[in-house]
Design a protein that fits this description.
It is a single chain. The chain has 18 helices and 13 strands. With 499 residues, it is α/β, with parallel strands linked by helices. The chain has three domains: 213 residues, P-loop containing nucleotide triphosphate hydrolases (Rossmann fold); 136 residues, Rossmann fold (3-Layer(aba) Sandwich), CATH 3.40.50; 77 residues. The strands form two sheets. A seven-stranded parallel sheet has the order 3-4-2-5-6-1-7, with helices on both faces. Strands 8-13-12-9-11-10 form a six-stranded parallel sheet, sandwiched between helices. Helix 5 links the parallel strand 3 and strand 4. The radius of gyration is 24 Å and the shape is globular. 37% of the residues are buried.
Length: 499
């Protein structure tokens, strides 16, 4: 509190922090962010993983409800904070934690069946929840928009805000509709939060929100994590990778610490899991091919375990608030500096020394370059997919998506450009809701954005640059943390060993 006398507003926020969240005092810029939010100002918050970003919108949400209770207005709609979150598992974790604290929170997503969803819509309309977590795709549903019209949306929080930017490391097309979403809910106070964003991505986030830079206050707490020891080991082949992983696992075998080993490909993860089983090394596995119930079980078991480690793809860890993760190993090269730094940020949240090791095999670079090509179709490719779906609709309906893949690229059946094209068609309303049909059906025109070759080439170039930045980090012979800070446009102060 910086020694000044607290106002009544300070005491309200502080009492919520004390009684609901169990913290004695605010950290860093949390209080300043909350003050600006309560004053109706928009904010972009960049705060390291584990720095307490969620409190910056959860406490204002509770303050809005408290204000409604003490200053009721005749005929007014009950206040609601809407939180846009990219992952279903992340939503459930946060809602469960809030419910444990007696806070009325809920989520609406595809994990609910129709009856559960309709029940929750009715509960939201009646004012039974104060925070509502949804994915941006939920705004496609007219019934959801109708429910929101029955509430006073006082705050819109955009979690993992790098997803807003098409230049960000985890681009989600529906996040580009944030300006539209804000208008639908009455242009409320908006707070966007992320752990990592380059200056370019920061500017794009503000633009995608439909705001001017002078409308948004920047709260940047840096990305420095002095307790993380970053290292790169150049390896050749899976056998050498396996030896490094075993060595690190055994190093922590007798300590009360846990670890995550990240993989890009599920088949590689499965291969390493089999190698560990043959060595009788216990571990967990988490990836997208597991059923949702199994993923939940693995996540819960890992959270409850001590001295355990998990082999996982990059979806694991979002919202995992496990303080004593002592090591994070990347067994395969990630796709960008941003995604790598976000993932190692899950280590050492308790402030204790933790190891972050990147095992670099040049062959992994080829995999990531292929991923970039798949996620960046050309204008010519978009046109070919559109023409096929439009002019050969009967064959598409009769023979399904495997026929579509074979027709578009018969010699490369595992070319995933088609998946990106359909995702973008879905985003722009070119096809009927792809998730509700066996095959896509053309219902709209091909948008100009997908035929703008210069724009598509620029997107491809930027994705390649992000991967190249990680290669530069790997080959950097100086202080890698200084290199990382320079990439994110931040000053760097080297810490002494005693700090």
């Amino acid at each position: 509190m910086n020694g000044r006398k607290a106002s009544n507003g300070d005491m309200d926020a502080l009492s919520i922090l004390n009684t609901r969240f169990g913290h004695a005092a605010f950290r860093g810029q949390q209080k300043a962010i909350i003050d600006r939010t309560m004053a109706g100002g928009h904010s972009l918050v960049i705060m390291p993983t584990g720095g307490g970003k969620s409190l910056c919108y959860q406490i204002p949400a509770m303050l809005h409800i408290a204000n409604d209770a003490t200053q009721p207005k005749s005929g007014s709609k009950p206040a609601l904070t809407v939180v846009l979150s990219p992952l279903i598992a992340l939503m459930k974790d946060q809602v469960d934690a809030l419910e444990d604290k007696g806070i009325r929170a809920a989520y609406i997503n595809s994990s609910l069946n129709r009856q559960e969803r309709e029940t929750r819509y009715a509960q939201v309309a009646k004012g039974q929840f104060d925070l509502l977590y949804v994915t941006p795709e939920r705004f496609r549903k007219p019934e959801f928009v109708d429910v929101l019209s029955q509430r006073n949306i006082q705050l819109l929080a955009v979690d993992e805000a790098h997803c807003i930017s098409e230049w960000g490391h985890d681009f989600r097309p529906d996040y580009t509709r944030l300006k539209e979403f804000r208008k639908i809910v009455g242009d409320p106070t908006t707070i966007a939060l992320t752990a990592t964003a380059t200056p370019e991505v920061q500017q794009d986030i503000v633009r995608q929100l439909g705001l001017e830079s002078n409308d948004v206050s920047m709260f940047h707490e840096g990305i420095d994590r002095p307790n993380l020891a970053i290292s790169v080991e150049e390896v050749w082949g899976n056998e050498e990778k396996f030896e490094h992983i075993l060595r690190i696992v055994k190093q922590y075998d007798q300590s009360d610490g846990n670890g995550i080993v990240y993989f890009t490909l599920i088949r590689t993860l499965d291969a390493f899991s089999e190698m560990l089983r043959k060595k009788q090394v216990p571990h967990f596995c988490y990836h997208g091919d597991l059923e949702r119930r199994e993923r939940r079980r693995v996540q819960n078991d890992f959270m409850r375990s001590q001295n355990a480690f998990v082999l996982a793809t990059n979806a694991f860890g979002m919202g995992i608030d496990k303080e004593d993760i002592r090591f994070v190993i990347h067994a395969e090269m990630p796709g960008s500096m941003e995604s790598w730094y976000q993932e190692i940020g899950r280590a050492g949240r308790d402030g204790k020394q933790s190891d972050c090791v990147l095992l670099y095999d040049e062959h992994d670079l080829t995999t990531q370059m292929e991923f970039i090509q798949w996620s960046n179709p050309t204008a010519e490719y978009y046109g070919r997919v559109y023409d096929l779906l439009q002019h050969r609709a009967e064959e598409v309906e009769a023979f399904g998506m495997e026929w579509v893949r074979d027709t578009l690229h018969p010699k490369r059946r595992h070319d995933h450009r088609i998946d990106t094209a359909l995702q973008m068609f879905d985003r722009h309303g070119v096809i009927a809701d792809a998730r509700s049909r066996r095959v896509p059906t053309i219902v709209g025109e091909l948008p100009a954005q997908l035929m703008d070759e210069a724009r598509l080439e620029e997107k491809l170039r930027r994705d390649q640059q992000k991967l190249y930045a990680l290669v530069q980090l790997i080959r950097h012979e100086g202080d890698r943390k200084a290199f990382i800070h320079e990439y994110f446009g931040l000053p760097y102060r080297k810490h002494s060993p005693k700090e």
